[in-house]
Amino acid sequence: APRALRPPAGPTGLGTSAARVAPPRPAASSASGVPELYCPPALRDDPALGREVNNRLLAWAGETGIYAGRLDRVRAADFGRLMMLAHPDTDDADRLLAAGKCALAEWATDDYYCDDGAGPELLGSHLGPAYAAFDPAHLPARYAPAWEREMRADPVRVALRSGLEHLARYAEPSQLNRLRHEVAVLYVGYGQEGSWRSREYVPTVPEYLAHRQFNSFLPCIALADVVGGYTLPAGEYADPRVRRAVTMAATAATLVNDLYSMTKEHHATGVEFNLPTVIAEQERCSPREAIERSVEIHDELVRTYEAEAAALALTGSPQLRRFLAGVWAWLGGNRAWHSGSPRYNNA
Ligand SMILES: CC(C)=CCC/C(C)=C(\C)COP(=O)(O)OP(=O)(O)O
């Protein structure tokens, strides 16, 4: 059942202990070799709901043309399950589907334009029209039909546009603009990675960590209120203290991806970008030591979110409290999904 979420109470017990989402308890180490992470547990597991969302997501992906010929792998990755785990405060399959479409389209942007050998020199050319699928370019009448053909000619653009259209049934304009901003930032991250890739450049650790805030799950996390069926006021989302906490959570969630996707990326051709690889190279340590240091960084980010969200929840609006709790729940669902998804565990 959907849960009434509560924000983290903070490591020092700010607020009441009953308000805590879950006691900090280490997640079990998995066969993937990822050590225990400081992370809340997933708050619900409803396999039937996850399957329902995944089935509908796959039907939609087939209509848009993304991952043609690879849909079996997408089905197995089970992004529907990710949505179900990460948004425990709704059991509305259609809301989960709308968020899932946006997430899968954003993932496809990465898979098609960054990872699948499209070539870094083409990345900017792809990202411009991809962004226009989310934030339409309004052309003079003479050129509009040709542009519209361009927009329909590429399955990733079709998917991005369709995902946003579905979300718009539930989101207010300010929430859609929030998503547009986060996706623009995401594409800055894609561009940065493309630049590194083209030069075979290994970033410094701070450079990589700042990048992972941009090239992160924030576009997904930012939808916590849309999926939950309430609206976090734009002013509170933009509050620098909220932004700091939420972006730290987003970076942590994405470092979970780095840790779980190491095996998949080892099998990929070209330069690998994940925190353990960057640390091993820049700090001249063993892969195991680099993983341990990455886990420490992840855990520090999660603990900081936990403490700062707890403090913000004491003075913020009810919507902010719920949003901070939604982000906390998203962290738990994200880790649970990564630890089980064949996208990372059967590479
Ligand atoms: C859903 C979403 C906002 C994805 C955008 C960014 C993205 C693909 C990740 C944060 C995952 O990182 P990575 O590029 O390493 O992805 P995979 O490991 O290939 O799943």
From TrEMBL:
Q: What EC class does the entry list?
A: lyase
Give the cofactors, semicolon-separated.
Answer: Mg(2+)
Region Disordered: start-end pairs: 1-36
Catalysed reaction(s) here are: (E)-2-methylgeranyl diphosphate + H2O = 2-methylisoborneol + diphosphate
Q: Which top-rank group of organisms is this from? A: Bacteria
Question: Is Lyase there in the keyword field?
Answer: yes
Matching entries from Pfam families are given as:
Terpene_syn_C_2
Name the keywords, alphabetized. Answer: Lyase, Magnesium, Metal-binding, Signal
Q: What is its EC number?
A: 4.2.3.-
Is Signal one of the keywords?
yes
One Gene Ontology molecular-function label? metal ion binding
Low complexity bias: where? Answer: 17-35
Q: Name one GO biological process term.
A: terpene metabolic process
NCBIfam families named among the record's database cross-references = f2_encap_cargo2
Q: What name does UniProt use for this protein?
A: Terpene synthase
